[in-house]
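Kindly inspect this chain:
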Amino acid sequence: MGTAEVGPPVCDDPRVDYPNDQAPGAPVRSGIPEHGRIPKYYAVKAQIDRLVGELGEGGLIPTERDLSERYGVARETVRQALRELVLEGKLRRQGRGTVVAGPKLAQPLSLASYTEGVRRQGRTPGRSLVTLDRFPCPDALAAETGLERGEPVWHLERVLLADDERVGLESTYVSVARLPHLDTEFEPDSSFYGYLHERGIGFGDADERIETVLATPREALLVGTPPALPMLLIHRVSRDTEGRPLERVRSLYRGDRFSFTTHLRG
């Protein structure tokens, strides 16, 4: 008895073109495995991706039913292709439809503020206050930042906005002794780094770590995303120009709306 060949389903429908071989920045062979067989949904995804380029930002994508008939595939195949394009940030849900998303926000990995990074791309930054409270510094935060265990610290949590679109969630921890009037002087929708600068506090250096995570149900609700959407999480511990502890920040960014850039020198 012969053995059946195991592999992804082959898309042999003549109405579905395979992806182009290579474009600048595209994966090698545009994701086609060496054996040349690709799943049907991937071929459909490539076709919809071309449609995205033709429609432009804000363009309305045809319904799953229309795409299914156009490409001669099952609606579940179309659904999987659309789901991946949404996760990649090329499409976004709007009401009961799907539209072409704008380009991702490219945030520099530097000591520049979120405000500066968003403005450089012609977008309007904003923030919405979730909470501002104070509590004794716990052991873990003290060990990480160099603050004294039990000393009062502020916790500032805000939703990050770009052109009124929710794109992230930021939690900042800072000593009350450094900023005793944060709760009365600081405007929650403004730049925290700008507030520090106005008070003569400058950044010296920082340690930063990036990882991918899934948002908790609470975080997903605040940012307005499905819990299954991949998120980019940045942990930062900053010090001032004299090397003293300044802030501990936990920034959660939507993986479909953000990328990060840095300049390396040999």
Remarks:
- The beta strands are 91-94, 97-100, 105-108, 125-136, 152-162, 165-175, 203-214, 230-240, 245-254, 258-261.
- The chain has two domains: 28-100, 105-261.
